[in-house]
Write a structure and sequence with these properties.
Strand 2 and strand 3 form a beta hairpin. The radius of gyration is 13 Å and the shape is globular. The longest helix is centred in the middle third of the chain and has 13 residues. It is an alpha+beta fold. The protein is built from two helices and four strands. It has one domain.
């Protein structure tokens, strides 16, 4: 697992809707502990901000990630798109 200094991190593709129902996608770089916090925030049903849980590497206001962004994330960050979105 890649590390930030001494801490392991993961990059997740997050998908959802903004408060105004606009769809979004975002690649979020975070520690495993931050990922647990994000999962808890999602389960609560309360609004939250992705940037509170890690570094947003790329994002957009579409339901699906554009092909060129997917390719760049695979190439530059070794993201695997075989896992489901978070």
């Amino acid at each position: 697992m890649p590390t930030i200094g001494e801490q392991s991190y993961i990059i997740l593709l997050c998908k959802g809707q903004m408060a105004d129902a606009t769809p979004y996608w975002a690649y979020l770089k975070m520690s495993v502990l931050q990922a647990k916090g994000l999962k808890a925030a999602q389960a609560s049903g309360q609004p939250f901000s992705l940037q509170d849980f890690g570094e947003i590497l790329a994002w957009g206001k579409e339901a699906e990630v554009p092909a060129e962004i997917r390719t760049a994330m695979e190439r530059d960050h070794r993201v695997s798109h075989e896992l489901p979105a978070f």
